[in-house]
């Protein structure tokens, strides 16, 4: 989704339309934050779910580009719209398609906030009225704003709503009552408020075989990946071409410069216990959302005892995922990476942690990590 925002900012003078999922009910074949950008030249970025629905929305986007008028449509997902798989999802969605431009100040400030890892929310007034156009208000965590919904009274009403959503998952559609020009009259408008959190940042300590596979898979599911290793030959872009950054440094030195926040995920996959121990010693002092370590239950027991004796917070240690990963009976570096990244996704999406058990045969049951 962040990539789509950057695509909007890079449009230049080319006309384009942005389709966004703003409401859904029931089972749907798409992300609840689905977005698709269609340019006048025919380029398509992102997806609104695929199938015939996407084809319909591309046609709608072209109409929006030509007319300049936004379009709000409700679809009930039939087999045809759900895609060629023949699955009838049975859900309903509302898609808002609006004209966008690279010069839009709100999107430019939003892209800057994303780059600065600053939580924020964007409120969009949903309307198909030509005179109203597309109105947006960006609300930053600091309370600063950019843009407007068209009326100061509406901006004030939505400001509190937006501030409450900052840092949370998923957007919400609100009906807001406004005083009309008629005495005693009221009008109702719909406003879609979508929070934008800093992208999840994976701080991967260890650039060996397992680390390389974790980096590759995590980048594929939209983590920003930083690979850290004290050996330059294991922390470089040639070895990890998908990594956003590679840092060759000792563990304490790296932690002093990383800027860890609530959207940071720390994985200890170094070449030895003493290095993993130092990663854990540093990590439990940070607000990282996730801390995980490769290794055995025995390694964990001995390390926890030592760190606790040094004054380490036992409550924080109990939040560490160790041994790391969903228990799928993983053996190879590639399989271990699948296990680890699956756990990262589960934490990111807010699924509660469940303790692992050893499986004699992984085909016998499915066990949480």
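^ Assign residues to that structure.
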């Amino acid at each position: 989704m962040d990539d789509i925002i950057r695509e909007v900012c890079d449009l230049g003078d080319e006309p384009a339309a942005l389709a966004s999922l703003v409401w859904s009910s029931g089972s749907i074949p798409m992300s609840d934050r689905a977005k698709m950008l269609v340019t006048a030249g025919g380029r398509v970025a992102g997806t609104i779910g695929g199938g015939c629905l996407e084809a319909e929305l591309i046609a709608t986007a072209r109409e929006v580009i030509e007319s300049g008028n936004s379009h709000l449509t409700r679809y009930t997902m039939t087999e045809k719209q759900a895609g060629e798989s023949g699955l009838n999802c049975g859900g309903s969605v509302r898609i808002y398609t609006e004209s966008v431009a690279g010069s839009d100040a709100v999107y430019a400030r939003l892209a800057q906030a994303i780059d600065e890892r600053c939580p924020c929310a964007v409120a969009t007034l949903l309307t198909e009225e030509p005179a109203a156009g597309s109105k947006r208000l960006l609300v930053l965590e600091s309370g600063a704003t950019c843009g407007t919904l068209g009326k100061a009274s509406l901006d004030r009403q939505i400001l509190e709503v937006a501030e409450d959503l900052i840092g949370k998952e998923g957007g919400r559609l609100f009906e807001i009552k406004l005083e009309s020009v008629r005495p005693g009259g009221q009008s109702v408008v719909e406003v879609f408020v979508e929070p934008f959190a800093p992208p999840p940042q994976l701080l991967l300590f260890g650039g060996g075989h397992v680390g390389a596979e974790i980096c590759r898979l995590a980048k594929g599911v939209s983590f920003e990946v930083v690979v850290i290793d004290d050996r330059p030959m294991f922390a470089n872009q040639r070895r990890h071409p998908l990594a956003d950054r590679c840092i060759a440094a000792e563990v304490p030195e790296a932690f002093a410069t990383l800027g860890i926040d609530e959207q940071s995920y720390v994985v200890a996959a170094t070449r030895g216990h003493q290095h993993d121990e130092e990663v854990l010693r540093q990590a439990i002092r940070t607000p990282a959302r996730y801390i995980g370590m490769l290794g055995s239950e025995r390694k964990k027991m001995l390390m926890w005892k030592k760190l606790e004796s040094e004054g380490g917070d036992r409550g924080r240690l109990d939040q560490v995922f160790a041994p790391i990963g969903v228990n799928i009976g993983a053996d190879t570096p590639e399989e271990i990476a699948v296990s680890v990244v699956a756990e990262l996704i589960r934490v990111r999406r807010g699924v509660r942690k469940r303790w692992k058990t050893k499986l004699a045969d992984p085909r016998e049951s499915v066990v949480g990590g």
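The longest helix spans residues 51-67.
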